[in-house]
Design brief:
It contains five helices and five strands; from the N terminus they run αβββαβααβα. It is of the alpha/beta class.
Amino acid sequence: MAHLAGPVTRARFLEALAGVHWLHFAGHTLREGQGTGLLLADGVIDAAALVEAAAPVVVFANACRASGEAWVEEARGISSLASALLMRGVQHYLGPMWEMPDEDGLGFALRFYEHA
């Protein structure tokens, strides 16, 4: 299990994904152009790059707008991070459907792992 803290670059993130089957991302997501991804210190990792690097079975995206906001715009051609990951083979996805305070995300994650 890799734990990355501090400024995490795309190269460092992708290197840490080797062999990972469960990814918990606590950070921010971003919608760029026609796609979405995980916001890192030097840019965005989109669903295709993430799945190509690791093919995780479970992705827990503890980040605002990781699911919900983009779903609303899917009819206009913008895919959510959740749907992009699921379409590329991630079997299980956990992520908020709306923006939430960091404290609430932390509380949910702690309770989730207490019972996982």
